[in-house]
Design goal:
The chain is α/β, with parallel strands linked by helices. The protein has helices at about 25-35, 45-50, 55-60, 80-90, 105-110, 125-135, 155-165, 195-200, 210-220, 240-245, 260-275, 280-295, 300-310, 310-330; strands at about 15, 40, 45, 70-75, 95-100, 140-145, 170-175, 205, 225-230. The chain is built from 14 helices and nine strands. Mean pLDDT is about 90; it is low at about 55-60.
Length: about 325
């Protein structure tokens, strides 16, 4: 079999998962600067992208032309999936990822956006028609992200993976839960091994990977070729580079502290203001600032001031004190 075009990504086999409302362009750029094998855009609804409904482009600026970025598409209809794939490829996308793993009810429900995401695992013939449409529409690599199955009675990820590989999928990421588990319980990394045994393309393990130890366990139990980190990177955009270094047996870079941390957080905040505009950027940035302040151990009063201020200038003035406040508490 011809080697997968995604094999080169595995030189640094720690990837950033797509997270709606979180892995926007400013955050992906920051994670990429620290070092990541691959970063994946927020999920984009294929039909909305083609029809350019208001807000879609602004919400999911896709990082066209950035080498280690995949654009993730979701949908239920082959026509719109293919058209969206052509659109992003024509704009310079390097990799397209197909979402068949999102468990959100508004995505999986027929009354929502069209029974897409992990709902497609209930109808593999239809799922394959979407994969074939996307692969046939573009000349760039197409990857797939999905789950172990719909529920405990329908654990069909190995079959989906085999058929997807036959249709031209270059790499597959498996979240170690079923759709009906959502994010409850623990990810079953060992269950991913059945997918790894079913295909020759790279298989990436996802779910509950938050540090080098859990990454190592996930690789050992799944037999996977790499790991994908999502929620563990919230407030820690440097985490992926640390995990990759430890897995490779290389010196692990320290998490930023003191002035370096202030520079990173204020730089991220500034980039969000530029990307979204000051008013929206300040609101969108609050969750990221909250994670940074939590990780820094900032006191509750100062944390509240940062996260409730409507004045970006005040936020920028408060951040150095807030990020160093945690150091004083720790001391």
């Amino acid at each position: 079999m011809t080697p997968s075009p995604c094999r080169t990504l595995l030189s640094k086999p720690v990837f950033l998962a797509p997270l709606a409302g979180i892995t926007d362009l400013p955050f992906r750029n920051l994670v990429s600067r620290f070092g990541a094998g691959l970063v994946v855009s927020e999920m984009v609804a294929s039909q909305e992208m083609v029809q350019a409904k208001p807000g879609v482009r602004e919400r999911a600026e896709l990082g066209f032309g950035i080498e280690n970025t995949a654009v993730q598409l979701a949908g239920r209809e082959a026509h719109w999936m293919a058209e969206a794939a052509r659109k992003v490829a024509a704009n310079g996308a390097r990799i397209i990822d197909i979402n068949m793993g999102c468990p959100a009810k508004k995505v999986t429900s027929a009354s929502g956006t069209g029974a897409s995401g992990s709902a497609l695992m209930k109808d593999l013939d239809h799922a394959l028609s979407l994969i074939e449409a996307v692969v046939g529409a573009v000349d760039i690599p197409v990857t797939l992200k999905t789950r172990l199955g719909w529920d405990d009675r329908l654990m069909n990820a190995p079959e989906l993976a085999r058929r997807a590989e036959g249709a031209g999928i270059a790499m597959i990421t498996i979240h170690g839960r079923t759709r009906c588990q959502f994010y409850k319980g623990r990810a079953d990394w060992a269950a991913i091994r059945a997918v790894k045994d079913a295909v020759e393309i790279p298989v990436i393990a996802n779910g509950d990977i938050v540090d080098a130890g859990s990454a190592r366990d996930a690789l050992r139990l799944s037999g996977g070729d790499g790991v994908m980190i999502g929620r563990g990177a919230q407030g820690r955009p440097w985490l992926l580079s640390q995990v990759a270094a430890e897995l490779a047996g290389q010196p692990v870079p320290k998490a930023p502290e003191a002035g370096d941390l202030v520079d990173i957080v204020t730089g991220h905040y500034d980039e969000m203001l530029r990307f979204y505009g000051e008013e929206l950027g300040n609101r969108v940035a609050r969750k990221h600032m909250g994670w940074y302040l939590d990780d820094a151990g900032t006191g509750p009063a100062l944390r509240k001031r940062v996260l409730t201020s409507r004045d970006p200038g005040e936020v920028l003035r408060l951040l150095p004190e807030a990020l160093r406040d945690g150091e004083r508490v720790a001391a």
